[in-house]
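Data deposition worksheet. Section B asks for the primary sequence of the deposited chain exactly as it was used as input, without tags or linkers unless they were present during the calculation. Section C holds the resulting structure in token form. Section D is free text for depositor observations; keep each observation to a single sentence. Incomplete worksheets are returned to the depositor.
Section A, Depositor: J.P.
Section B:
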Amino acid sequence: MQLYLIRHGQSLVNVRSQLDQQPSMDAGLTEVGFKQARALAQWLPGEVPQIHALYTSTLLRARQTSQILAEIYGCEMRPDDRLREIGSSFLDHLPVTVESLPQNYEQYLRNYFTKSKLPYQPIAHDVERSESYMHFRVRIGAFVDDLTRLHLEEAVLVVCHEGVINAVFDHVFNIGPYRTCHIFNENTGITHLVYSPHPERESWGLRFQNRTEHLKGIIGE
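Section C:
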């Protein structure tokens, strides 16, 4: 399987100057975010001319990014709640409704960046039965395992979030609960992983991480 993980375009949750206004965790793309997504859609088919599936997080910023890619590739999006950002699902992996998503965004960010120290504690304290990082790891791992079963010989695009990409790395590199390295990803940055089961060597391979050539000339934050 050729797996391409793509972070969504810029949204208000990625703009530092807007964080004091408590943006919605389901905020859509900014004008810059749409430019990033369109630049990605123009560039990516030259690198990945054919795909067999396009999966997307169900949060708005990811769906808007995916829609632009779907139009270029002439395919349908496959929304999957398991690809939502950490803290936007309950303990049982069901999605938190838009109205009930974390409201204290500054507190959410503090919890997000300390998850490596407290991986079993809830990420969103203002959401009842909020998932921990380890619950999040389980839903991401289940999604990845399904991909390896359904698309073993195929190329797959997955539009998601930085937290999701970090969890995929933890899953494929077999990282324990107390992580020591955060993997930074620019908006619309592309990561390429390859899965090929083999009895005598590693099944997963990393081709590249966070490619952003398509963003040349586009100003982001």
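Section D:
The mean pLDDT is 91.
The two ends are 33 Å apart (CA to CA).
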